[in-house]
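Appendix C: a fully annotated inverse folding record. The material below is reproduced so that readers can follow the format used throughout the book. The structure is listed first as tokens, followed by the designed sequence.
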């Protein structure tokens, strides 16, 4: 017989919710926490407060020392939020500038290849033509230099 899949949502019936909690508290999270601590040789701490406010806990070591260690670890992590936010803002602006430059270069490349010329004005077409002519002169000069060598 195959079990049905359980939909992960809040159990509406209070009695069913309490029964499910009491059945699962030891069978799932506390057992799994113990297994992870033994199999992987790690320090595990689980703290659960039931809906009634009752405390359930598991620790593979000393719970108080684990909590103290956690508190010390979170205090040691530098939180330079203003500097980080300013740096992120700077990076966002730089990214936007680079994206605009990329779009401009891509549009120029397309024009030089003769693509997307339908939206160009006469002045833009003349400028693009001048750039193509200059590029062609440079290519011919380099080609002539290579033939001489």
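Designed amino acids, in order:
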């Amino acid at each position: 017989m195959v079990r049905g899949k359980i939909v992960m949502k809040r159990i509406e019936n209070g009695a069913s919710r309490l029964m499910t909690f009491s059945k699962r508290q030891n069978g799932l999270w506390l057992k799994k926490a113990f297994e992870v601590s033994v199999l992987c040789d790690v320090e595990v701490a689980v703290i659960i407060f039931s809906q009634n406010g009752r405390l359930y806990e598991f620790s593979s070591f000393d719970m108080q020392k684990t909590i103290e260690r956690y508190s010390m670890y979170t205090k040691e992590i530098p939180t330079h939020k203003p500097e980080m936010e300013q740096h992120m803002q700077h990076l966002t602006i730089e990214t936007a500038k680079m994206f605009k430059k990329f779009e401009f270069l891509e549009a120029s490349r397309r024009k030089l290849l003769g693509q997307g010329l339908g939206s160009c004005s006469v002045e833009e077409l003349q400028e693009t033509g001048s750039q193509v002519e200059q590029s062609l002169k440079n290519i011919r000069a380099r080609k002539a230099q290579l033939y001489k060598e």
